[in-house]
Amino acid sequence: MRLLKPLMIAGFAGLMAVTSVAQAAGDLTRRPQKLPDLVMGSDESDYFMSQKEYQLETGKSYKLAIISNGQKEYAMQAPEFFSSIFLRKVEAGGMEIKAVSLTELEFEDASEAEIYFVPVKTGEFEFEMEGLEGKGMVGVFKVK
């Protein structure tokens, strides 16, 4: 036990040093930061996408409105991004949906969904409209 106690203290001190470095910059007590809307389709082009890049930080709360103008069916996919966030809720069609994760957001007509989330992992995560990647409907979430 005499040898084990110094090892336990050293291990605890090492753990504390690691956790103090790995703190997020965000403050979850504040309202979510509204990101620029992601609008799909326009009067000029079915393949218009208003945003191609979002800059985010871990630990900050965000709200993103995703809007389809109804020109086409759009299926937003971002599997790596969706698995690297804490999903707080999705609001769509007068409903509030609380789920653990997302796979895809599909818009069959003119509609809107808002996702409320907190990024928990850094990196660059692509998003795309399924089947429309060749038409330029791709973007990236950059998380610091």
From TrEMBL:
Residues 1-24 form the signal peptide. Keywords: Signal. The keyword Signal applies. This is Copper-binding protein. It comes from Pontibacterium sinense.
